[in-house]
Amino acid sequence: MKKVYLIGFMGSGKSAVGKRLSNVLHVPFYDMDTEIANRTGMTIPQIFETYGEERFRDMETDFLHRFQDEYCIIATGGGVAMRAQNREIMRQTGLVFCLNSTFRDIWRRVSTDKNRPIVQRSTRDELEILYHKRKPLYLESAHFKVETAGRSLNEITQYIA
Ligand code: S3P
């Protein structure tokens, strides 16, 4: 087994699916945001506020470059697939699964979340525009597309496993 990368928009269930998959496959799980937060000793909103978004994006790319664990499941941040360099690393070092949720479901899950700076600074319409802008890039990065609408966490996990 290679690395498994879970990609997709915020709130598409990458972390929840990653954890469950890790239990089913007995493979370590890493959440990229958590790893970056642990390494810097700051929360994601603090990183955005202190260093700006671009520096956070560099941290994501650094993580992909230096991550050595060969067999693991990684839930990426929703912006990771936006850089061509990141897309290339993921496709070359693992299997990439895109979790595809409807914007309606996403909004329901993230709209009140204080830990996502992109959500905090956006209106619903702005976030929906970003969702549509990013969608082709997720699909371009992925080896497999997983529709989440109407499926339970278990069903999604079983499909990937
Ligand atoms: C971001 C998604 C977040 C986190 C950061 C930026 C994005 O991760 O990396 O807030 O640009 O889509 P999740 O997709 O896990 O929420």
Fold and architecture overview:
Helix content is 57%, strand content 14%. It is α/β, with parallel strands linked by helices and 161 residues long. The protein has a single domain (3-160), classed as Rossmann fold. It has a five-stranded parallel beta sheet with strand order 2-3-1-4-5, sandwiched between helices. The chain is globular. Residues 10, 14, 33, 44, 77-79, 116-118 line the site of shikimate-3-phosphate.
Layout of helices and strands, plus pairs?
Elements: E1 3-7, H1 14-25, E2 29-31, H2 32-40, H3 44-51, H4 53-66, E3 73-75, H5 84-93, E4 94-100, H6 103-110, H7 117-120, H8 124-141, E5 144-147, H9 153-160
Parallel strand pairs: 1-3, 1-4, 2-3, 4-5
Helix pairs in contact: 1-9, 3-4, 4-5
The chain binds shikimate-3-phosphate.
Catalytic activity: shikimate + ATP = 3-phosphoshikimate + ADP + H(+)
Main location: cytoplasm
Keywords: Amino-acid biosynthesis, Aromatic amino acid biosynthesis, ATP-binding, Cytoplasm, Kinase, Magnesium, Metal-binding, Nucleotide-binding, Transferase
